[in-house]
Amino acid sequence: MEALQVISSATQIISSMVGAVSALDQASRNLDEDPKRIRNLEEFVYDLENLTRGIRQKHVYKLHNPQLDHQIQSLNALIEQLRPNIAKARRIVSRSRIKNLAKVVWSSVAGDPLSKLINTIRDDLNWWLESQRLTQHVQKVIESTAQDVPVRLKIKVEQGWPISSKCHFVRNLLEQEDSHRVILIVGLSGIGKSCLARQVASNPPTKFVGGAVELGFGQWCSRNACNGNKDEYQRRLAKKISNFLVQIGFWKKIRDENTGDLDYVCCILQEALYGKSIVILLDDVWEQDIVERFAKLYDNDCRYLVTTRNEAVCEITEAEKVELSKDDIREISMEILQYHSLLGMEELPGIAETLLERCGHHPLTVAVMGKALRKEVRAEKWEKAITNLSKFATCAPGPVSYVNEKESESTLTIFGSFEFSLEAMPGDSRRLFIALASLSWAEPVPEACLEAVWSVLGEESLFPLIVCKLVEGSLLIKTDMDPLYLVHDMVSLYLASKADDSTEILLNEYSLDETAFICPWLLIFGKENVKKIAEERMEFLFNVLEGKQVVATLEEVIHALMASKSMSELEFSRERFSRILGPRIADLISTDSLSLVAVTTEAITNIFSKSDYCNYFPSLETTGAIKKLTTTLEFCEENPMIQIHILIVLAKLAEFGSPGTVDKVLESIPFNQIAGLLSSSAEKWHESMFTVLNSLTKAGKSNAVERMFASGIEKTLIKLLENGSEVLQHHAIVTLKGFYEVAHTPENDFLQPSNLNVLPWQVRLRLETFVLSDRTVPHFPKPLCFEDLVYKVLDGNKKQVLQAMQDLIPIIEKSADSRVREMILHSPLVDRLSELLQSRHSEHDSIRSESAFLLMKLAFSGGEPCIKKFLDHDIVPELVKMMQCNVEELQDSAYTALHQMLFGNGGILVLDKIFKTGFVDRMVQSVDSKSIKTREVNVHCILDLVELGNRSCLEQMLSLQVVEKLVKLEKITGGSGETIVGFLKGMDKCKHLSMMERRVIKQQVVRKIRASLKGHKLETPILASVDACMSEGLKGASSRYRK
């Protein structure tokens, strides 16, 4: 964007210079005019220098962008060429008149030097302008070509896996026209089936124009994992295929309403692969019908690489069967050992071949042993490793459950390598690894959970070193972008054999304090049987523990929830915790422990949903909780965080309590204390305080608002409007608007027209109705006059329609009055404006723009009744369509109208319409538009939706890959992350998210940002902006508890 601004400004100046040079050429023999023309050229060059200098200063931190830097350098070069030539021209015309007369005579014989200079200057200027036009033209041609080229999907190759002869064999099968569509790669677990398939698919034959894509299944997607439940198995398989449809770009998002219907999803899969030519890697397949569902798809040129260790899958007859045997891996096992041991061929001890034989050349076993012997060159150490491997393989526990019995011997060898690797590690690493057997490894586990497990076992500060040893030993895999861990399926199988030991260690061997600490984590991230044990243990602990131990448990509940990887995981865990905590809140709040009351209120604010407040808060109304909480509030004046959690609970008590409870809360709450927590020096508490104010306003209405006015809260909020951050201004606007909607604006000097003039236009637009209007209509418009204007809009010519629209504005601005509003809504005006919006003739653009403006005014003044009328006439969809057109004036008008409708009364109806009709999909796709204006208005509208939406809206936008598209936009424009930060700030402004939900979904967004930016030149500056935004949003977060 900055480069475009540079070229636009410079082009205007240089185009003017070309005109000045032409004028100089025409006047080159007018000796009186020459100096004036030269002076004009010098002024143009001076303007160019100022422009270049100003751009450099303004964008000093963006000069890493090559396009921006090239534009500035080209301007500097042009200035350097112009300056000496203009100076020469100045010297020529500054000579005396006599010499100039002589020059005229001489020029007729030898040629005019001034004319030569003029031609040189003109050539330089035209060259620069032409080069810019050529650059833009070439860019458009390349972009047009790129637009028509289909995307070629890619699979990431496995690091440390050499190319074997088997890779070439499988690739040749893919190239053959007469081979089967399905290629089964079978072999022992950990032998490298997936690595081999990825190696082939990372560079598929050129005939597969669509590239290659991987779809992993695993044991999770098997009948055995579903305990024979057919419906659950089909639901899981349908979800996997739905993810695949999104992965190949056929679906923009996962459609929750259809993910459980396997037959429907398979029909869509047939449609999605029609005419496609893709290599599809189906990895770790456990069920035969999975392969059959893909193999029976028709009218495509796709081939399927299938990796499996299930003999039933291998029985598919219509498939090429490629078995990965010991002989196949023998040729690459030495390279694998070198890669993981960090030793060259000449550095390996001679006994290395013996180690490979003992490992059976099994790649996973070789990798584990290689890492255990990393940089070890002493032969005796390798001999001991071989001896120990044999001993551990003999003693290793057999697999708990396994599909192929013939693999048991290999499995014991692999398990033996795990035992050897653990034996070579410090004892702390061994203990942590065994303890991790209680966790479910079906999905990646967050680092915070591993850290919590270790905190029960040892010193917290040692965790990075301990877990690093497990990663180095190939027992844990750490993802590149996120602090998440996963394990190889053979490691998972080994851990399953240690599950009972792990549960015994974590839940029985340590004190009640440690048990209380770890139970919340096991309830979220444990295996299914462990979750049940943890839930029962937590219920028991709440009944027998002392206050200090309950405090630790509740704190860990909060921290465990914050580690949730997704909103669905958070919601599922939150419900389980609320069932445990809900029935006990009255007893917990009634205790004499200040710390227990404080952490209980914090847990309530983070865990409870609206339904929880309705179900469990009635018990607080009859137990003296209000008095207890207000008393506690008096003893914690030095701890704002505790004050805030107590205030939130009191406010929610009023919001969900009886009228008598509302009165008690309003009488008990110290409103002066609330005003203090809203001061500019207490910014990190502001978000929570706005929650308190909104709940109290909703519950106490005018009574609550009058108390707030009396305590100076309104004055404090207006100060935040004047000097607060963007997010604080938003919350202050929403809160003040709520005040003025339920109570008359008090007669004070805090909010006056003079104050509005110094506020941003968005603030003025949303508050001026409460200041500039007395909400009455002193001069009711004559019906005849209004009818005449409507008649002109209906049947007048273009000029009459535009004039009538202008005359209607004063009437529409009075539609806050019910009489005026009803008159408008019962007239054909809205219907006519809807028709005018739909006109597609360019000569009607001004009428369409004016129609959008009138609708904006009507929405602003008339509120929800007008919005409902708009929805009946499909005006919202028309405005969304207008934002996609190529006329900038119409796009701006449409967005401005839609913005006002969203933020006005009844905006929630507009929001629902956009999401239910799928128009949010169109907005998200428009982020990729070539038109700068189209991208701009749609991005603005998306940020509005983030600000106003709820959890469901945000999840829907994330499923549409809106974050990835915004990152792509930043890459294209060479931005600094402003749009992405705006997305995060929109979530900070959203009042429909709890603090816990906001934190989890922001972490999810940041993970997407990091993944999309990985390796890009803008990764560092954009992530710096994102990290700064995240740090600002976490100012009020509580510190982590540790024993």
TrEMBL record:
GO terms for molecular function: ADP binding. Residues 171-321 form the NB-ARC domain. It comes from the Eukaryota. It holds the Pfam family NB-ARC. InterPro entries: Apaf_helical, ARM-like, ARM-type_fold, NB-ARC, P-loop_NTPase. This is NB-ARC domain-containing protein. It comes from Salix dunnii.
